[in-house]
Amino acid sequence: MKQRFGVLVAVGVLVLGTAGTGSAHAGAAGGTDSPHTGAAGRGGPYAGAARTNSAHADAARTSSPHTGATGRGGAYAGDVAARHCPTAEIFATDNTAIITDPADVRLKTRLTRFDHEVRAIIHANGARPGASQLLNGLYWSGELEQVTYERSRAFDVGRVNRDGLHHIAGTIAKRYHQESVLTFRCLPRTSPGTDAVEIQAPGVSATALHDALVADPEARHDLGGGSGTSDGRLVLVAPLGGLPLAKRFTKALGVDWSRAQVRYGDEEFVS
What we know:
Helices cover 20% and strands 26% of the residues.
């Protein structure tokens, strides 16, 4: 994933597939270059920065003891607790190209091999891989002044603490030559570590999201992008302070806020 200008990017995804679970050993210190989910980082464009070609070298499997579980938490809009928030999520891709054509054949990949490899990395570093979702992201590039596109995956991760999650994300970033990998740890809304929200809302098409980003300079700068799932579900990860903007933006997309799910947690772009 890419970082925004200072903060994180809104992550929007088209969910097309899932995977199973597993378990593992440990995770230790950080990594480099992280895989983002696409072109723009929140508050700034993904596509703005040059991508290095990704590599599929065998991931170094480290054995470090990070099996501590993080707290779970979250809430639906209106402060109703979210019941389905995983311990943590990793948003990642093996793509290193900037894609500006929504019809580009590279956006049809299912990232099957990438899915297996990342799940193996999670398992080998002491955490438990959960479901994996195929995503289609739309991100605003400030340098190109247009929307860019990227295929990525979101991985649920269990039995992991903050340091272990950071290490796993760094390993993925290094292996796939990414600028950054976005992580999100679900936490209670009132936790001192909570600095971000993940919003999921039904009723949003990719076309509507594209048009809204083009029309709203504040949203595309501070949120960066997003996407709709195959069943029309929007997913945005935004800074906690950006919740009012995200709410305004999603309402402009026609989202019924009473049906939106808001998860609270800690976000990090690991590079």
